[in-house]
Amino acid sequence: MTSGPGKLALKTFTGHKRITVDYQSTNKHIVNVRRAFLETIDLSTSRARQANHVLSQAAYRMQYANNFSALTRTAISPRVYAANANYSLLRHRATLMPLDHTLTGHSGKVMAAKFLGEPTKVISGSHDRTLKIWDLRSRMCTETKFAGSSCNDLVTSDGAGSTIISGHFDKRIRFWDIRTEMSANHIMLQGKVTSLDLSRDSNYLLACVRDDTIQLIDLRMNNIVRSFSHESFKVGCDWSRAAFGPGGRLLSVGAADGAAYVWNTHSGRLEAVLKDHTSAVTAVSWHPQSGLLASVDRGKRAVIWGDL
């Protein structure tokens, strides 16, 4: 197990409040969301490329759509969706960051948003205990699903976007078929679900849970196949984000002690405890093709880690 302050830290960024992080599809940049800005950071120079004052509240999740031409039918560039605390979804062109859409309709904080198979549909999850499906052409909500509990994160588990998986405050992971109103089934855990992540082959689901565990679920059987925990690992907040590594062999999650923990999903072994933060680490994101890992904390700091 690798441990120790700064051992693998390659770059650090500071000065951002309430940040989350994701790697852009070009692999050369990360997008960093602070309280009122979406910001793209060039990893080669460690400098911000764009920063737009577009968010009135903190942002919790974002997602890229790699096929921008399918969204705009004219340009070729990624787009990004941000779910924020102002009860709305915001869509941006990642190269220039103009605001395209503001989709309003939730009555609580919007915690997650994902594209639904096709580039004209998005699903969002909120603390108003609903999931909403949006048509980007009409900019209207086309369907509302009533979950009965605040939604903290969601994923879509097939290419068509017909199956939705959502994680909730009532300790349940719910499975939805968009062709029906009610959830098909659910899995009960031992704590609030703070985040979900799907493996690339869509066979496994990663759930970060407020009982200070990470649960690995085999979606082919809907069973928990492995649980990850450590005596020093404590989930830092209700929206802490865990993530699979690019090949699915590793997972990472931030902790209340200011470290990013890395486990081997095959053996269950704790591979590394990465210490360079001084406050709770709230989100992590892996480089899509390498072992680089980005982590951010509640103290305005982002760190890029290597050699994992």
Automatic annotation (TrEMBL):
<dbReference type="InterPro" id="IPR045160">
    <property type="entry name" value="ATG16"/>
</dbReference>
<dbReference type="InterPro" id="IPR001680">
    <property type="entry name" value="WD40_rpt"/>
</dbReference>
<dbReference type="Pfam" id="PF00400">
    <property type="entry name" value="WD40"/>
</dbReference>
<dbReference type="InterPro" id="IPR015943">
    <property type="entry name" value="WD40/YVTN_repeat-like_dom_sf"/>
</dbReference>
<dbReference type="InterPro" id="IPR036322">
    <property type="entry name" value="WD40_repeat_dom_sf"/>
</dbReference>
<dbReference type="InterPro" id="IPR020472">
    <property type="entry name" value="WD40_PAC1"/>
</dbReference>
<dbReference type="InterPro" id="IPR019775">
    <property type="entry name" value="WD40_repeat_CS"/>
</dbReference>
<dbReference type="GO" id="GO:0034045">
    <property type="term" value="C:phagophore assembly site membrane"/>
</dbReference>
<keyword id="KW-0853">WD repeat</keyword>
<dbReference type="GO" id="GO:0000421">
    <property type="term" value="C:autophagosome membrane"/>
</dbReference>
<feature type="repeat" description="WD">
    <location>
        <begin position="274"/>
        <end position="305"/>
    </location>
</feature>
<keyword id="KW-0677">Repeat</keyword>
<dbReference type="GO" id="GO:0000045">
    <property type="term" value="P:autophagosome assembly"/>
</dbReference>
<protein>
    <submittedName>
        <fullName>(African queen) hypothetical protein</fullName>
    </submittedName>
</protein>
<dbReference type="GO" id="GO:0034274">
    <property type="term" value="C:Atg12-Atg5-Atg16 complex"/>
</dbReference>
<dbReference type="GO" id="GO:0043495">
    <property type="term" value="F:protein-membrane adaptor activity"/>
</dbReference>
<feature type="repeat" description="WD">
    <location>
        <begin position="103"/>
        <end position="144"/>
    </location>
</feature>
